[in-house]
Design goal:
The protein has 13 helices and no strands. The protein has 341 residues and is mainly alpha-helical. The chain has one domain. Helix 3 packs antiparallel against helix 5.
């Protein structure tokens, strides 16, 4: 290899290492970009009424912060109370599950017991997993200063991006060759539109999953429907499996009351997941963001492993943007125009 190629390889490795070291900052910046994209759509609505941009941004922030404030005030007190009660009932639910499993195994012939899964190990592993989740939740809230600083950083970045989006967009476009800048600007517009569909789909999924699970749990008379409904709604951030994972706690609570209710809860969450994945999200996105479920799930898993919660949170918007660029640049601009010599 020539010296130039060695220097190019070293530059790529060094860039990858630097990006890995500052990955949290990069993901916080991407969070600000996603929020700013959604907020800018609301700003444009106010601008259509001949409101100056500064006042439009202020009005948009007032609307959003007021909505979040009212929502928080309505649910915080009840949420904290029910969540504490829920944590105290988890060991009881696991103990009840263990008793039922022991009774079941006592009625099975000895020769068949060795062929069946060991439910004792399962409950022990489930207890360890729940303890880990609870511990990390408390660690998350105990590190509140870092959370506040990160939120403030994202808020400031969002305001800066919304205040003058065209300036930042032009900076990005100038990194492309002169002949491709107009095309790059068109692709950025498509990315913005698809990000709006993505954010709308996520928001509607949260509301749909949260309300339907809460109503379903109320009908089944499962304890703490508010907490479980909110947890189910938040789990909609993780497509395809988030809703089903959030069913673990209400299933354990159902076992304390009536065993048949556990099956009913599983059916409820499965039905919610199917309706959300097959009807709600496609309707909002209008099939313009056609991500394959298996590919999306695999890539989101990778994001979660390498980047943690922020990776799961931003995985879907990043995939939407990456897919748009690959389709427009690689497929439309290169492969579709490739002619046999």
């Amino acid at each position: 290899m020539t010296l130039g190629r060695w220097l190019g390889l070293f530059a790529i490795i060094a860039s990858a290492y630097i990006l890995w070291q500052i990955r949290i900052i990069v993901f916080l910046f991407l969070t600000a970009v996603v929020i700013a994209t959604a907020l800018n759509r609301l700003v444009r609505r106010f601008r259509q009424s001949n409101v100056k941009r500064g006042y439009a941004i202020l009005l948009s922030l007032i609307v959003i912060l007021s909505f979040l404030g009212v929502l928080t005030a309505l649910i915080t007190v009840r949420l904290v109370d029910q969540f504490n009660q829920l944590l105290s009932l988890i060991p009881i639910s696991l103990g009840q599950l263990q008793l039922w499993s022991n009774e079941l195994f006592s009625r099975i012939p000895a020769g068949m017991v060795t062929e069946l899964p060991n439910l004792t190990n399962f409950t022990q592993q489930l207890q360890a997993a729940i303890n880990w989740i609870v511990t990390n939740i408390y660690l998350l809230f105990s590190n509140s200063l870092l959370i506040i600083l990160n939120a403030l950083f994202v808020f400031v970045l969002t305001i800066m991006l919304v205040a003058n989006p065209q300036a930042y967009r032009q900076i990005l476009v100038r990194f492309f060759p002169a002949f491709y800048r107009q095309r790059a600007n068109e692709i950025l517009s498509k990315c913005e539109l698809k990000l709006i569909h993505c954010v709308a789909a996520i928001a509607l999924s949260i509301v749909f999953v949260g309300l339907t699970s809460m109503i379903g749990l109320l009908v089944l008379q499962i304890p703490f429907p508010v907490v479980n409904g909110i947890l189910a709604g938040l789990s909609a951030f993780i497509p395809y499996i988030g809703v089903l994972v959030s069913a673990i706690l209400p299933v354990l609570l159902a076992l304390l009351d009536e065993p048949w209710k556990a099956g009913a809860v599983l059916l409820l969450y499965f039905a919610i997941q199917q309706i959300e994945g097959n009807f709600v999200i496609p309707t909002v996105m209008k099939r313009r963001v056609d991500l394959l479920p298996a590919t999306t799930l695999a890539l989101l898993t990778v994001f979660g492993i390498f980047f943690g919660f922020l990776g799961l949170l931003l995985g879907l918007p990043i995939l939407v943007v990456a897919k748009t660029w690959l389709e427009e640049v690689v497929v439309h601009d290169i492969l579709d125009r490739w002619k046999n010599s």
